[in-house]
């Protein structure tokens, strides 16, 4: 039990996957003196071993911990990611990039997309993606980090695509250097305080006992502490997100180039990912087991992979949804133990990162866990999950596909009220719900709405007051300036090589 203000809180992390080591390293580095961190992991159980594509927010985590980006990228064989290329989602044969960046600029408080919609009516606008530097750079396989000073070159962000089996060990070395104590072994018993119900001790198979004040459950889909021990109910979202399996198979690169983006291709019973790393390509088919068998999915991924297979397809089973509360008693679920919403927008590592960030902000020091802090943590985590859930459902629902039972189901299903409201706002007047925090701002929603062929009935009427020729001229200039910027960027592969060389050179 957490008591006096002077003693550091004894944190015990159960699990050494991506979530476990991110949590342990983050707490040890960012709360020195306020906590001690023990971590238990089991090589016999292993990690889920997928989770290669990230969101730009991970850079803040890397930076905050003082990790050298180039060193991190070399160690995890990472590539840069400017967005996701969605193929065949709205309609077979059509594609769009959801970029980590904006489309054009607001003018006089009117969003760029309103001008674009107006110009489209006059047949004076190109594709929406023509006005995004991130989209144009991705399409050209080019990359360089955005400019720090406000300019066109600062209108995008980037994330990483890394080898999930190398990321954990990298964070483990970092965590141990910052004071994390690691235990190897299987937790077979959990002891709890008879009065409060709080977890007090993890008991390993060989009898070792690890006592703590605060327990971070990073045991993956097992959810040993939050799910099994605290019995925190599971909210199942399969009716909105029917994919519950993945067949994953790495292969070699099919060409000499490395794309600075992930590809997500819609399939008859789900969708397929291609994630380029430095040394290989990650491939997988995320599918609904109600619509496709595991054998059929493995066969599909074998046939679809463009390079030579580096392993047999591996099936991963999951249930989309989350635990009702991520923090219960003195147990906090981080990562898959607290929920999973399938990898369509690479959000799972982000959700783990945010849980760690919120925990650090609300960390119980000086007098035990304040239930208000716990409630606030749960409110914030819920908000993050709900946002991600709605955004993912949009990719399935905003479609005209009627070529399979799966697409007929997702196209016609009833969506959550929160998403129905957002759709209404967009359909009627091209408006996007505003948030001040959390994931997926205007540009992301607009990318998917427009990319999947969902255009609004109206847009901001003030755009009609502007001279169409002048607006069209501004759009043309933006498009050509973007093209010039992209031409000046190095190829993604050259940039990666340059960074590797820089790292190898003595300082
Ligand atoms: P795990 O990696 O499963 O780690 C669990 C840990 O707990 C292990 O160390 C294990 O040994 C330990 N453990 C469990 N039980 C015990 C015990 N009894 N005793 C001791 N130790 C124990 N996320 C993204 O952000 N981007 C993606 O592109 C992405 N793609 C994905 C694709 C698929 C198909 C799936 C299923 C997930 C994907 N994810 C993705 C999610 C991502 O893989 C996870 O969020 C991330 O790897 C974190 O996993 P974890 O650490 O919670 O669990």
How would you describe this structure to a colleague?
The protein contains 15 helices and 21 strands. The protein has helices at residues 18-30, 58-64, 69-75, 112-121, 133-139, 164-177, 224-229, 294-304, 348-361, 371-397, 405-412, 417-429, 442-451, 468-488, 492-504; strands at residues 9-14, 35-41, 79-81, 83-87, 95-99, 159-161, 181-184, 187-192, 199-204, 209-211, 214-217, 234-236, 245-248, 262-267, 270-276, 281-287, 314-317, 321-323, 327-328, 331-333, 339-340. Helix 4 (112-121) crosses helix 14 and helix 9 (348-361) runs antiparallel to helix 10. The strands form 5 sheets. The chain has a 7-stranded mixed β-sheet with strand order 5-4-14-15-16-13-17. The protein has a 6-stranded mixed β-sheet with strand order 7-2-1-11-20-19. Helix content is 36%, strand content 18%. It is globular and about 75 Å long. The protein has a domain at 245-317. It has 507 residues and is an alpha+beta fold. The model has no long low-confidence stretch (mean pLDDT 95). The chain binds flavin-adenine dinucleotide. Residues 15-20, 40-42, 45-48, 50-54, 164, 186-187, 218-220, 222, 224, 246, 248, 284, 316, 318, 335-337, 343, 346, 348-349, 352 line the site of flavin-adenine dinucleotide (FAD).
């Amino acid at each position: 039990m957490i008591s006096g203000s002077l003693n550091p809180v004894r944190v015990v992390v159960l699990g050494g996957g991506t979530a476990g080591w991110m949590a342990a390293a983050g707490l040890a580095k960012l709360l020195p003196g306020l906590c001690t961190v023990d971590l238990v992991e089991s090589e016999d159980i292993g990690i889920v071993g997928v989770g290669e594509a990230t969101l730009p927010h991970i850079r803040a985590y890397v930076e905050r911990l003082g990790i050298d980006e180039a060193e991190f990228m070399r160690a995890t064989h990472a590539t840069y990611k400017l967005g996701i290329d969605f193929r065949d989602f709205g309609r077979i044969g059509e594609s769009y990039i959801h970029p980590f960046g904006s489309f054009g600029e607001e003018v006089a408080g009117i969003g760029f997309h309103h001008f674009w919609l107006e110009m489209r009516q006059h047949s004076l606008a190109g594709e929406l993606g023509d006005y995004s530097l991130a989209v144009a750079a991705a399409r050209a396989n080019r990359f360089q980090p955005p400019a720090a000073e406000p300019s066109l070159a600062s209108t995008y962000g980037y994330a990483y695509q890394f080898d999930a089996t190398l990321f954990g060990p990298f964070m483990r070395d970092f965590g141990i250097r910052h004071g994390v104590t690691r235990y190897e072994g299987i937790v077979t018993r959990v002891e709890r305080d008879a009065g409060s119900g709080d977890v007090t001790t993890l008991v390993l198979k060989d009898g070792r006992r690890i006592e703590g004040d605060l327990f971070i459950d990073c045991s993956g889909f097992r959810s040993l502490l939050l799910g099994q021990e605290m019995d925190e109910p599971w909210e199942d979202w399969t009716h909105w997100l029917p994919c519950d399996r993945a067949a994953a198979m790495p292969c070699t690169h099919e060409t000499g180039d490395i794309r600075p983006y992930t590809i997500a291709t819609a399939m008859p019973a789900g969708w397929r990912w291609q994630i380029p790393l430095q040394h290989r390509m990650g491939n997988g088919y995320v599918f609904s087991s109600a619509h496709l068998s595991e054998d059929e999915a493995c066969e599909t991924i074998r046939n679809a992979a463009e390079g030579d297979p580096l392993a047999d397809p591996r099936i991963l089973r999951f249930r989309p949804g989350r635990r009702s509360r991520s923090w219960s008693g003195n147990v906090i679920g981080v990562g898959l133990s607290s929920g999973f919403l399938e990898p369509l927008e690479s959000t799972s590592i982000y959700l783990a990162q945010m849980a760690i960030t919120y925990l650090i902000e609300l960390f119980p020091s000086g007098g035990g866990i304040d239930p208000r802090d716990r409630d606030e943590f749960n409110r914030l985590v819920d908000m993050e999950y709900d946002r991600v859930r709605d955004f993912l459902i949009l990719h399935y629902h905003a479609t005209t596909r009627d070529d399979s039972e799966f697409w007929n189901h997702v196209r016609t299903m009833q969506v959550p009220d929160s998403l129905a409201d957002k759709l209404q706002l967009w359909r009627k007047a091209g408006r996007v719900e505003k948030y001040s925090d959390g994931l997926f701002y205007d540009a992301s929603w607009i990318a998917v709405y427009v990319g999947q062929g969902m255009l609004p009935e109206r847009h901001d009427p003030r755009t009609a007051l502007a001279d169409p020729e002048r607006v069209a001229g501004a759009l043309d200039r933006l498009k050509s300036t973007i093209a010039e910027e992209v031409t000046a960027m190095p190829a993604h592969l050259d940039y990666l090589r340059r960074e590797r060389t820089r790292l190898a050179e003595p300082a």
